[in-house]
Amino acid sequence: MKKTLAQFVQEKRDNLGLSPKGLALKSNIDVSIIEDIEAGKDLFLSVTVRQNLAKGLKCHPEELRRLEKDFKNDVVSFQVIESLKELILNGAGGLKCPKCGAPLICKIEKMYDLEDNLVLHPKAHCSKCVFQLH
Length: 134
Fold this sequence. Notes:
Blueprint: H1 5-15, H2 20-27, H3 31-38, H4 47-57, H5 61-67, H6 78-89, E1 104-112, E2 118-126, E3 132-133
Antiparallel strand pairs: 1-2, 2-3
Helix pairs in contact: 2-3, 2-4, 4-5
């Protein structure tokens, strides 16, 4: 069975005899990020975190990248997208990413059509993964 990113990081850290705080210091990463990765909350790492973590774990960044969740293959249905747009336009707060469940950062862009009518356009992006709503 394929290991998860959380299992891989925890196992490598244990094999090096490091605590989460020790790995955080070696990797120059905040300990809360290490804890989130090991808890399975962070499934997609930024390039910087991946490189620093690989250095601290004495492995290649590609080993970590292969275990990250592949969000490109997750398809979000048209109905979910339309529902999110409507919720944003209605001022709903606390919306979650349909791909990973992390908080969405939402805004409403004000634009004008050719007849100078105001058009509201909902936008959102995930705080953790690559999901975007345009």
